[in-house]
Design a protein that fits this description.
With about 250 residues, the protein is α/β, with parallel strands linked by helices. The protein has five helices and eleven strands. It is about 35% helix and about 25% strand. Strand 5 and strand 6 form a beta hairpin.
């Protein structure tokens, strides 16, 4: 069996201060590449640079990366919001357009966390010796899965209602998952995927994202024709695009 050759030769981690009390990790990957690339990930900001030379005519890539992070934070602090989220706590109320649901966490002598929906509560039983890091890594994903189970039928009904009202396009399977990078997507086969974080948004915002993805069934790009199709169903869609850009980073489990 052939294996892909490992191209990363060295990894370095550096803390970058955004503001007093707020620091993110910049992970530097030295690879077989010719250019620099930086992106904000889920756990760190990732900087990828050539392995052959630490310096280049453009200057020091590490200094450039640190400045990029600090400038990005000043321009759009919401991009880094997920680095500073609090661990979901017992008694937290999640307010959705389909109803409110309370988080109940129960420490037990067990090896792994499990969850279930009971009436209007999400109940998570977890190992009693877990610290904040373990809870922070597991709880949001588990809450997302349970929220998707609890509100799936209501969400599917909303999709069907909007599609019948505006488009009447044939679409495939609908998936709800804890996607942090996009609000929705539409495959070429008509499969619709939505972030469970959308369940925490106001109804007009949810409707906009649904309409956006339904429109992609007919137009698979963001051309003028696509936006005209969106506007035909929701003329005021731009205000919801702005809302997501300004407030979307606050929608987390």
């Amino acid at each position: 069996m052939l294996h892909r050759r490992r191209t990363t030769s060295k990894i370095t981690r550096l803390p970058v201060e955004l503001a007093p009390g707020k620091t993110v990790q910049m992970v530097i990957y030295r690879e077989r590449r010719r250019n620099w690339r930086i992106s904000v990930g889920q756990k760190a900001v990732n900087l990828r640079i050539p392995a052959s030379s630490f310096s280049s005519p453009q200057g020091d890539p590490v200094e450039w990366g640190m400045k990029w992070i600090q400038d990005k934070y000043q321009q759009d602090p919401g991009v880094f919001h997920h680095f500073f989220l609090h661990v979901p706590a017992d008694g937290k109320i999640y307010r959705t357009v389909f109803g409110d649901i309370e988080l109940v966490t129960v420490p037990e002598p067990r090896a792994a966390a499990v969850g279930e929906v009971e009436d209007n509560c999400i109940v998570i039983s977890y190992p009693g010796d877990w610290g904040q890091q373990a809870k922070g890594e597991v709880f949001p994903k588990l809450i997302s899965r349970l929220m998707a189970t609890r509100y799936r039928s209501e969400f599917l009904h909303r999709i069907a209602f909007l599609n019948e009202k505006h488009y009447r396009f044939p679409y495939g399977n609908v998936v709800l998952r804890y996607n942090k990078s996009t609000w929705g997507s539409c495959s070429h086969t008509g499969k619709l995927t939505f972030s469970t974080r959308l369940l925490l948004a106001p109804l007009p915002v949810i409707d906009y994202v649904i309409i956006h993805e339904l429109a992609h069934i007919k137009v698979h790009n963001h051309s003028k024709s696509f936006w005209n199709l969106v506007a035909s169903a929701m003329p005021e869609y731009k205000q919801y695009v702005k809302w997501l850009r300004a407030e979307g980073h606050k929608l987390y489990f």
